[in-house]
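During the reporting period the student researcher (J.K.) took over the structure-prediction task from the postdoctoral fellow and processed the backlog of single-chain submissions. One of the processed entries is reproduced below for the supervisory committee.
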Amino acid sequence: MSLNAIAAPRCVRLDSWCQWRHQRWFILIAALVELFWFSGYHYGYNALIDPFKQIGVFRYACNASEENCPLQEKLFHYAFLVWVIVQMCLITGAGIIMDRFGLRLLKLLAVGIYFVGTLMFAFTKGESSNLLFVAGIFVALGCVSSLICNHQISSMFPEFRGFTISLMSGAFDSSTVVTFLITKTFPSISLQTSFVVVACCALFYGTMMGLFGLTQWSEDMSNRGMKVDVDDTVERQVDKHRNGDDELEGNVKYNVDERIQAILESRYPSLRRCIFSWPFFLVTLWFMFGMLRFSYFLNQMEYRLNGNKYLPQTSIEFLGQNARHKSSILAAY
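J.K. obtained the following structure tokens:
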């Protein structure tokens, strides 16, 4: 017996635990709060470099007499590159898990990974500096997988789907404020205490979202627990369309979305067919060149800033550092 068949009755009960009229608005607000406080704080990692230096992270790469150690600085940047590249290489697995087992399992798995990664941040010290590489990978994978799950909430708002996705994406990007607050409260509140609090709150909040905020399948995902003869459905609907028979038997309303979904599943029945299709190739090619162009722009911006005599040197260094971080993210994409 498959895992879906075993979990199906319990998932159905969780999906219908509340029938409140304004339930979808409550879930959307809860998702925005989660994405703002417990998601992509690692993108504000440059704010944490100085506190990590003060507790001796990567200090082993420097001589005792060195005050400004270039190799230590490079190791911090290498860690960030490793996070982003590994995230981009492995995030496809999140989509496969979601398609195979549903939103709820992926959400709970993402929350667990995020929790472990944040605890690793908490216990990163001079003696365990290399733990920073693994911590960032876990946090990056966990938060992006969680974002993918939360994006499915937009199916509850078919009239405002684009606006809903943009709200959640904005909340996700704004979560860098967490690292800003952690930095500002250091050393009054230690990094370990701050990250342990974030980890525990994220575990509780994310688990509640996974169990009660998300459904097993979103409204625009086909029910994987039921076997549907897609080919027969498509052929029947196409024949009706060709014969000009647009009237459905009885008084059942013709569902255009179901027809489109059936045609797409018939044309791309497997993951392999999707990946090796022309639409996927063209979109990937367009996205790759677009990101390459923007990454080149960010890299060149630092050189332009260095020749600007009207900006303070500290501002130039800050903007240049952020440009390098953003360009490394885009290069990984």
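The committee noted the following: The CA atoms of residues 96 and 271 lie 9 Å apart.
J.K. will present the remaining backlog at the next meeting.
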